[in-house]
Design goal:
With 614 residues, this protein is an alpha/beta fold. The protein has three domains: 3-247, Aminohydrolase, N-terminal nucleophile (Ntn) domain (Glutamine Phosphoribosylpyrophosphate, subunit 1, domain 1, 4-Layer Sandwich), CATH 3.60.20; 271-441, Rossmann fold (3-Layer(aba) Sandwich), CATH 3.40.50; 448-596, Glucose-6-phosphate isomerase like protein, domain 1 (Rossmann fold). Strands 3-2-4-1-10-9-11-15 form an eight-stranded antiparallel sheet, covered by helices on one side. Bound molecules: 5-amino-5-deoxy-1-O-phosphono-D-mannitol.
Length: 614
């Protein structure tokens, strides 16, 4: 949730930290702060609100020059977003400064302990506890690394901590448990970040850390231990996307840029995953074909948009493999004592690979001896590392809080997985698989065609600037599309929006329909006659009650025209793949409407990109 940056080297630490925070701000933007060591003292500034407030404050009152420091951008958990609760937090003697991502669950006990020992705690945060504990421990041990190891052994919950000690201007020490942290390996300088975007401008060599590890960086060294001080090693990797991927590239929002990148990332997500003849080759799936043949049940888990990707996956996987497939919100799944066996395949979908709800769910699933396959976008993140297998989605960095290309590539990965399972288990003929692969291969062009007509959707957004409620209807694979269309509007435009399965309408939601209410209707392709015709009936029913219908239907489907107040034509694709093209106008609509309303599209209120607390 929060974004963290650490630096030690020869350059000006404040410039590097502020730049890193700018790239981390998508993770949380309730406050921002910086602390550095200058001439044996901690110098620090922090401000509630967006990073710009901190930047203004530093421009007015510059901090002394320093070559070591830490920075933080916050998504508030303990205590409201104000200057006092902003990170970094300092120990009582101002010797140690700490930034933190996560929740220290035993903080009340630790706070009471500190207060009974005369600690003067000024914020409402759990982080300040860590700062005080670290400062007290470093005063005893004289060594920040040892102090970090000792303090981490006392903490419960999820945390990334990054600390500096005014008496030791050479080292930044960090630790992680269930919360992300990567090391950037430079020449004569080293970096820490919640993800690689924090330092991508300076190095693409990164070091991935395991759970419960402490890392100490100096200009020339990186040392990793566990919480007991036993030396450990991180896993080095190369970040294969460049700086431009983390920049807006002329777009007003990252989100809009990411929407328009979708043709390219669909190609990337398919790259190397099939032969020219259409045989799937998933070298990265480290679950044997024998084990996949034994799978008797699939449970797909995820949260938010990733959960909707799972709902689409269910239609494809069951249809192609005949394996029963359930989809569940990861946080519901984890705490309801689900029945899992060694023949259950749990598919965990997560763009960030750090979502705490999903992480806890996969840990639980593996304890029950189920196999876990992650579908993930973020190399080196925790969920794929703790899974038995991974399919990376190759969407590149997704900076906007609202997921777009992350979702579309999750869908591609789900299709690829479904077809692979069908291939391994022989539930589809080779030519059927090859035909679907060929249809997937055409998706970049189909999506591009929808994007080329963005202006039609933008006009719709202009026409609905005063809407206070918008509904979305879909059937079959169009149902998750409706849910996602509504989520995007809630997230970005802050207006009431609901997605319904069209068949459910008459069981209650139709009572919401009133004169002029805009309703997006996702119509299945004509090839699926029953589904298609039933959707048309639903559209007629709501139109008869005064709804304004905005119909998404495949080009050439003349049967919808009499019932569509507005028509968005979609390229002709197989039914099961239709979400890939149908989602695009809904993404564009939400992005444009939020822009017109003056909302911050990339950083919507109350949200954070990566939800690393349960
Ligand atoms: O990183 P993840 O895919 O695990 O994130 C899951 C959800 O938090 C995420 O999809 C969220 O719903 C997005 N803000 C949707 O736009």
């Amino acid at each position: 949730m929060c974004g963290i940056v650490g630096y030690v080297g020869e350059q000006s630490a404040s410039g590097i930290i502020i730049e890193g925070l700018r790239r981390m701000e998508y993770r949380g933007y309730d406050s921002a702060g910086i602390a550095m060591i200058s001439e044996g003292s901690i110098v620090s500034d922090k401000k509630a609100g967006k990073l710009a407030n901190l930047v203004d404050s530093l421009a007015e009152n510059p901090l002394p020059k320093a070559q070591i420091g830490i920075g933080h951008t916050r998504w508030a958990t303990h205590g409201p977003p104000n200057d006092v609760n902003a990170h970094p937090h300092l120990g009582q003697q101002r010797r140690v400064a700490v930034v933190h991502n996560g929740i220290i669950e035993n903080f009340t006990t630790l706070r009471e302990e500190l207060e009974s020992d005369n600690a003067d705690l000024i914020s409402e945060t759990d982080t300040e506890i860590a700062a005080h504990l670290l400062e007290r421990t470093v005063a005893e041990t004289g060594d920040l690394t040892t102090a970090m190891q000792q303090v981490c052994r006392r903490l419960e919950g999820a945390f990334t901590l990054v600390a500096i000690d005014a008496n030791d201007p050479e080292r930044v020490v960090a630790a992680r448990r269930n919360s992300p942290l990567v090391v950037g390996l430079g020449q004569g300088e080293n970096f820490l970040g919640s993800d690689v975007a924090a330092f991508i401008e300076h190095t693409r060599d990164a070091l991935e850390l395991a759970q419960d590890q402490v890392v100490t960086i100096t200009r020339d060294s990186v040392e990793v231990t566990d919480f007991d001080g036993t030396p450990a090693t991180g896993k080095q990797y190369y970040v294969d996307w460049d700086l431009s991927a983390a920049e807006k590239g002329g777009y007003d929002w990252f989100m809009r840029k990411e929407i328009f990148e979708q043709p390219e990332v669909i190609s990337d997500a398919l790259l190397g995953r099939h032969t020219p003849e259409g045989t799937l080759q998933l070298d990265e799936v480290r679950i044997s074909e024998g084990e996949l043949r034994d799978v008797d049940r699939i449970v797909v888990i995820g949260c938010g948009t990733a959960h909707y990707a799972g709902l689409v996956a269910k239609y494809a996987i069951e249809h192609w493999t005949r394996i029963p497939c359930e989809v569940e919100l990861a946080h519901e799944f984890r705490y309801r004592d689900p029945i899992l066996t060694r023949n259950t395949l749990v598919v965990a979908i997560s763009q960030s690979g750090e979502t705490a709800d999903t992480l806890m769910a996969i840990r639980y699933a593996r304890q029950q001896r189920a196999k876990v396959l992650a579908i993930c976008n973020t190399n080196g993140s925790t969920i794929p590392r703790e899974s038995d297998a991974v399919i990376y989605t190759h969407a590149g960095p997704e900076i906007a809080v609202a997921s777009t290309k992350g979702l579309i590539t999750q869908l591609i990965a789900c299709y690829v997985l479904g077809l692979y399972l069908a291939q391994v288990r022989g539930t589809l003929y080779g030519d059927e698989i090859a035909n679907t692969i060929s249809a997937l291969g055409q998706m970049p062009d189909k999506v591009q065609a929808v994007l080329d007509d963005a202006e039609t959707v933008y006009q719709l957004a202009r026409d609905h600037i005063d809407a206070s409620s918008i509904l979305f209807l879909g059937r079959h694979a169009g149902y998750p599309v409706a849910l996602e269309g509504a989520l995007k509007l809630k997230e970005l435009a802050y207006i009431h929006a609901e997605g319904f399965a069209a068949g459910e309408l008459k069981h209650g939601p139709i009572a919401l329909i009133k004169e002029g209410l805009p309703v997006f209707c996702v119509v299945p392709p004509k090839g699926r006659d029953q589904l298609h015709d039933k959707m048309i009936s639903a559209i007629q029913e709501i139109r008869a009650r005064g709804a304004k219908t905005i119909v998404l239907a495949e080009a050439g489907d003349d049967s919808v025209k009499p019932f569509a107040d507005e028509l968005i034509e979609l390229p002709v694709v197989p039914t099961i793949l239709q979400p890939v093209v149908a989602l695009i106008p809904l993404q564009l609509f939400a992005c444009e409407l939020a822009t017109l309303l003056g909302n911050d599209v990339d950083q919507p209120r109350n949200l954070a990109k990566s939800v690393t607390v349960e």
